[in-house]
Please model this.
Amino acid sequence: MNTIDRIKAAADEARRRGEHPTRVFLTVDDGRKLQFELIAQDSRLGHRIEKQGVRNAVHKVAGLDVVWRSPEFKVS
Model:
């Protein structure tokens, strides 16, 4: 399962529990995997990521604000 699908699944699970997720917390490894997936998926976004870095180029994924370098993966 890739990182974007993992984020979407965690957000859907939180919504089923009645929560309203607004942020996704990504570990360093999750951030690296997400960066690779986004570069492979969209060439324009990939170019922006290469120029600005993933933290400055990507602020939202699947409608959730990204919190980089978290100690654990979670959606809240």
Remarks:
- The radius of gyration is 12 Å.
- The first strand starts at residue 23 and ends at 25.
- The beta strands are 23-25, 60-61, 64-67, 74-75.
- Helices lie at 3-16, 28-41, 43-52, 54-57.
